[in-house]
Amino acid sequence: MMELKIKIALKFFLPVILIILVLTPAVADTDDLPVEQAVLTMAPQVPPPIDRDHPAKVIVSVDTTEQIGRLADGVEYVFWTFGGSVPGPFIRVRKGDLVEFHLNNRPDSKMPHNIDLHAVTGPGGGATSSFTAPGHTTQFSFTALNPGLYVYHCATAPVGMHIANGMYGLILVEPEGGYPEVDREFYIMQSEFYTKGDFGDEGLRPFDMEEALAENPDYVVFNGSVGALQGDNSIHAEVGETVRLYVGNGGPNLVSSFHVIGEIFDTVYVEGGSLVNHNVQSTLVPAGGSAIVDFKLEAPGDLHLVDHSIFRAFNKGALGTISVGGAADKVVYSGQQYEGIYLPEGQAEQVVSNVPASPVATSQEERMLFGQRVYERNCMACHQSQGQGLPGAFPPLAESDYLLDDTDRAIDVLLDGLAGEITVNGVTYNGVMPATRLTDEEVANVLTYVLNSWGNEGGVIEPADVAGHRAAN
Ligand code: HEC
Ligand SMILES: [Cu+2]
Fold first, then answer.
1. Are the C-beta atoms of residues 191 and 71 closer than 8 Å to each other?
2. Which ligand is closest to the CA of 427, given by its number?
3. Which residues form the Cytochrome c domain (predicted)?
4. Is 13 domain-assigned?
């Protein structure tokens, strides 16, 4: 009897209880927050400052993509991204905001992705709630409890690889009342790329796990590629203006010694937090960390952003430019005041030491070895590692009838380049092979290597043969 009563009661009240549960918001007092869509910007752009004096519910929606893009001139890479760019979009919220985050993984992705925002207080920074398979979408919410500039990144296994391929960006949580006003704000994010081959080696370059483990990148860049902040992409400001850089470091491995050549940071929000320092030359930006730097522009000209671990700047890409317009103040900076010849006592002339010549092969074995090196640096990007070429683009050198029918002609191909229609093993190619700038020795070495690799039995080319062709032209 008792049991029956409970059953009836349940039957009657359960739907009512369920309806009440569904209608009750998960976070009790966020119910009446005003709702807004986040303004997202791509680097170097920063969303406008927040002028609210109260929290809001901010909706952020970001797609994850896997796409080929430019890493440097002539160099391409398969980037994994937030929002289709590296770094991902800049997100700007206010302390106390409830952020409703939607992660959408494009249907043409091959990998699942998720997001760990360092601004989140909770397991995985959101990663445990945002694992998203290709063609799926997920949602979670968090309250931005702490103000500061925070990195976000993908944290799907293998985590290092998702970050190395470009999955990071910045989220700014403004303190109540915001940061002091400045004239211009920019979004700068440093990161490294690990590729098969060396810096500048052309073609589509795959990720190199061994280099990543050794923390020895070929590229260290600002905003996702070499030159993303140079030339036409330089950022601009005027003398008299105040500039704020929101600087992040996606890593995955290196710590940045962030510096602007020709400026002093008037103010640094150390590590993107609330500690304020003044009059700073270089500030450390940890992997997975940030800094906010402010400075006033007193002199016109080009300022160069660098990682002051300086080989990264001049040899691996970590260079950017702020071109500053306006009138010069000769007291702030005079420009050059004198230039002349300086001869220390007893020295009549200045000597420049000679550049060492490329090594000279003394045996067939060495010719093959040196030739292989020339091939890997100068030919492999197009003709591929086994000389197999790339269908529709680059003809094969392995068992190429065009090559083996007339090995002498190959010397001219290297010296002069080749354009126009040719037929290799019955397939027509109509591309352009640029003339190489190799020495006689190098041409002989690389051709000898090509003629005796991958099933080719094509004999030997001597430097004298190359010299003969050069003279005949
Ligand atoms: C930027 C890409 C590129 C690079 C780098 C390059 N080649 Fe080529 N190569 C081509 C293209 C494209 C053709 C076909 C040109 C045409 O269609 O007329 C070609 C044609 C050739 C041919 C004749 C066709 C054949 O398959 O036998 C030879 C031989 C050759 N290249 C050798 C080399 C060697 C050796 C190097 C390195 C020193 C080199 N190439 C570097 C793009 C390249
Ligand atoms: Cu990912």
1. no
2. 1
3. 366-454
4. no
Q: Give the atom of ligand 1 at the shortest distance from the alpha carbon of 396.
A: 26
Is there a domain that residue 84 lies in? yes
346: confidence class by pLDDT, cuts 50, 70, 90: low
Domain assignment of residue 125, yes or no: yes
The whole-angstrom separation of Cα 191 and Cα 172 is 18
Q: Assess whether 292 and 150 both reside in one domain.
A: yes
Same domain for 42 and 172?
yes
* Per-residue DSSP letter, 203: E
Residue whose structure tokens are 């000209």: 301
Ligand 1 pocket by C-beta < 6 Å: which residues? 378-379, 381-383, 394-397, 400, 402-403, 410, 413-414, 418-420, 422, 424, 429-434, 436, 446, 450
Q: What is the pLDDT of residues 100-136, one digit of tens each?
A: 999 999 999 999 999 999 999 999 999 999 999 999 9
Contact by Cβ (8 Å): 262, 301: yes
Confidence category of residue 171, pLDDT binned at 50, 70, 90: very high
Give the CATH number, domain containing residue 52: 2.60.40.420
**Does residue 28 carry a pLDDT above 70?**
no
Kindly state whether residues 318 and 379 are assigned to the same domain: no
Output the pLDDT for position 2: 47
Average pLDDT over the chain reads: 90
C-alpha of residue 264 to centroid of ligand 2, in Å: 37
In a domain, 23, yes or no: no
Best residue among 367, 378, 382 to mutate for probing ligand 1's pocket (most ligand atoms within 8 Å of CB) is 382
Instruction: Please tell me the predicted confidence (pLDDT) of residue 21.
Output: 47
Residue 377: domain span: 364-472
CA separation for the pair 440, 469 (Å, rounded): 10
Length of the chain as a residue count: 473
Is the per-residue pLDDT at 354 higher than 90? no
DSSP 256-317: EEEEEET--EEEEEGGGSS-EEEEESEEEE-TTEEEEEEEE--S-EEEEEEESSTHHHHHH-
Q: Residue 452's domain is classified under what CATH number?
A: 1.10.760.10
pTM of structure:
0.64
d(CA 162, ligand 2 centre) in Å: 5
Among the bound ligands, name the one nearest to the CA of residue 110: 2
Q: Which of the listed residues 271, 306, 325 is the one where a domain comes to its end?
A: 325
Residues at the annotated binding site for Cu cation? 113, 118, 153-154, 162, 167, 308
Res. 26: pLDDT tops 50: no
- Cα–Cα distance between 231 and 73 in angstroms, integer? 13
